[in-house]
Design brief:
This protein is 46% helix and 19% strand. By secondary structure, the chain is α/β, with parallel strands linked by helices. Strands 2-1-3-4 form a four-stranded parallel beta sheet, with helices on both faces. Helix 1 runs parallel beside helix 3. Belongs to the UPF0751 family.
Length: 105
């Protein structure tokens, strides 16, 4: 599974937890640079995770728009793993179930 994380400068701990949850491709955009506003969701991305306490409202809106265009699920969370753990686990289960169904068809 693949995830794009938007927000936060250093997400090493979050990356480790995401890998434990089943995400093997993790892309990151800090949201600090002006060029980060030109969000491009990588192909075959399964989930966009926006860390709301590290991005502004305008970047959040851009992320929403891009995820709709790419038909990728988007979730919003604080940077704390405790806050995002259930959200991420539910999304991982939903994505893996969908992939299993797709492979059976």
């Amino acid at each position: 599974m693949s995830v794009l994380v938007i927000g936060g400068d250093n997400i090493c701990n979050i990356k480790e937890k995401l890998m434990e949850t089943g995400f093997d491709k993790i892309h990151h955009i800090s949201g600090r640079k002006k060029s980060d506003r030109k969000i491009r969701i990588p192909e075959k991305t399964d989930l966009v995770l926006v860390l709301v306490d590290y991005v502004g409202h305008s970047l959040t809106s851009i992320a929403k728009e891009e995820s709709k265009k790419s038909d990728v699920k988007i979730v919003f969370s604080k940077r704390s793993w405790v806050h995002m753990e259930n959200i991420i686990q539910d999304c991982a289960k939903e994505i893996s179930d969908a992939k299993r169904r797709y492979n059976w068809i």
